[in-house]
Design a protein that fits this description.
It is a single chain. By secondary structure, this protein is α+β, with helices and mostly antiparallel strands. It has two domains: 58 residues, Arc Repressor Mutant, subunit A; 122 residues, Alpha-Beta Plaits. The chain has six helices and nine strands, in the order H-E-H-H-E-E-E-H-H-E-E-H-E-E-E. The protein has a four-stranded antiparallel beta sheet, covered by helices on one side. A three-stranded antiparallel beta sheet has the order 1-3-2. Strand 2 and strand 3 form a beta hairpin. Helix 5 runs antiparallel to helix 6.
C-alpha cells in the first residue's frame, strides 16, 4: 500500500473514531517510525481538521463520517434568462461569502526574543545606523528560527514573537524552541564580531519560552487582523 493510500485510510478512520493513538496507527498499518513521522507531518500540515492530541495521537475536529443519501436522478431545469440587477430565480442558491476557518486547540510553544539595552543603543547610533543594526539582528534570528521550523508571528520593535507548533506541528516543538534560543545566542556572537568593527556596538538578547495548550484563531476586525 502506498503512502497516500494509507493517508486516506487514516483520515477515514479519524472521521469514524474521532481519536486514534500513534501506537494504534503503527499496529494497524505496520508503520515504522520514519513513515509514522511523515504521516503525522502530512496530516497536521495539510488537513486543518486533524490536530495533535497532547502528543499521544491524533484527533478529528471536523464533521463525523456519514453515508450520503443519493437522490434519484431528475431532469435538469430549463435555463432561465436573467438580466443584470434581477434577483436570482427560484431554486438557484445564492452564493455565500467564504467562511473564515474556525479556531482550534493546539499544543503551542511560544518564544519571545528582544534586544538588551536597546534604548542605550538608540542613543549611541543615528536612526539610519540603528535601523541597519536592528535589521541585521532580525535577519540573523530569522535564519536560526527557520532552521527549526519556527514561525515568526510578529516583529515588535526589536522583539520577535515566535511560535513552535503552529502552523506546522512537531513532536519536539518545545525542544526546538530551546535549541533555537541557544542558536540565536551563538549566531549573535558571530554577528557581534562584525558590528564591533563597523559600528563599535555589541548586541545581547533576552529570551523567554513557555509551552502549553492554546486556542489558535484569527483576532481583530476590519483591516487589522492578528
Amino acid at each position: 500500500m502506498d503512502f497516500y493510500a494509507i493517508l486516506d485510510q487514516v483520515i477515514d478512520l479519524l472521521r469514524q473514531r474521532q481519536r486514534v493513538t500513534y501506537r494504534a496507527l503503527q499496529r494497524q498499518f505496520d508503520l515504522d517510525e520514519d513513515t509514522l513521522n511523515d504521516l503525522k507531518d502530512e496530516l497536521l500540515y495539510a488537513h486543518p481538521h486533524v490536530v495533535d492530541d497532547e502528543g499521544r495521537g491524533l484527533r478529528w475536529t471536523g464533521d463525523t463520517a456519514s453515508t450520503p443519501v443519493q437522490a434519484p436522478p431528475s431532469a435538469p431545469p430549463a435555463p432561465q434568462l436573467v438580466t443584470p440587477g434581477d434577483p436570482p430565480p427560484q431554486g438557484v442558491p445564492v452564493p455565500l461569502a467564504p467562511q473564515a476557518p474556525e479556531a482550534e486547540r493546539r499544543q503551542l510553544t511560544v518564544m519571545f526574543c528582544d534586544l538588551v539595552d536597546s534604548t542605550a543603543l538608540a542613543r549611541q547610533l543615528d536612526p539610519e545606523e540603528l535601523r541597519e543594526v536592528v535589521r541585521a539582528y532580525q535577519v540573523t534570528c530569522a535564519k536560526v528560527i527557520a532552521c527549526f521550523d519556527g514561525h515568526i508571528a510578529q516583529y515588535l520593535g526589536d522583539g520577535l514573537l515566535v511560535y513552535f507548533g503552529y502552523p506546522l506541528a512537531h513532536e519536539d516543538d518545545a525542544q526546538r524552541a530551546v535549541r533555537t534560543g541557544l542558536g540565536i545566542i551563538e549566531a549573535l556572537g558571530q554577528l557581534n564580531t562584525g558590528l564591533e568593527q563597523q559600528r563599535g556596538v555589541q548586541l545581547a538578547v533576552r529570551l523567554g519560552i513557555h509551552t502549553g495548550l492554546v486556542v489558535v484563531g484569527d483576532m481583530g476586525g476590519g483591516t487589522r487582523q492578528e
